[in-house]
Amino acid sequence: MKIIEFDLNLYDQKCIEKSIEDFSDIAEIILEKYDNKIICRVLNSKSDINLTVCEFSNYIIDLMNVI
Questions:
Q1: Rg of the chain over all Cα atoms, to the nearest angstrom
Q2: pLDDT for res 14
Q3: Which domain of life is it from (predicted)?
Q4: What is the pLDDT along the chain (67 residues), one digit of tens a residue?
């Protein structure tokens, strides 16, 4: 399992939620919200979990650039 924290002052919650949905075929990711941050727990992945975490984070940034 890997944990990624996202500060909601920097990241859009809708983009994080959309990324979790889009990655659902690749990885099991659980979202937890605490105050002004979101914690994503990547429980497992079809690919290397470290690579998945990196690509997941990049995907969120890409989505934010589209909005």
A1: 11
A2: 97
A3: Bacteria
A4: 999 999 999 999 999 999 999 999 999 999 999 999 999 999 999 999 999 999 999 999 999 998 7
End-to-end CA distance of the chain: 30
Print the SS3 string covering 1-65. Answer: CEEEEEECCCCCHHHHHHHHHHCCCCEEEEEEEECCEEEEEEEEECCCHHHHHHHHHHHHHHHHH
- Phi-psi map region of 19: left, alpha, beta (phi>0 left; psi -120 to 50 alpha): alpha
**Which of 22-52 are b and which e, b meaning 16 or more Cβ less than 10 Å from the residue's Cβ?**
ebeeebebeeeeeeeebebebeebeeeeeeb
